Amino acid sequence: MRQGLREAILTVLLTTAMLAPATGAWAKGGNYVPVAAVDLDDILPPPPAPGSAAQIADMQAVLAAQEARTPHDVEQAMADFKKSIFRFKDVLGPNFTPKNLPFTNAFFRRVLSDDEAIVSQAKDYFARPRPFITNSDVNPIMLRPGGGGYPSGHSTFAYVAAVIVSMMVPEKRDAIFARADQFEQMRVISGEHYPTDVEAGRIAGGAIANAFIHSPKFMADLEISKAEVRKALGLKE
Question: 158-195 in b/e burial notation, b at 16+ Cβ within 10 A?
Answer without folding.
Answer: bbbbbbbbbbbbeebeebbbebbbbbbbbbbbbbbbbb
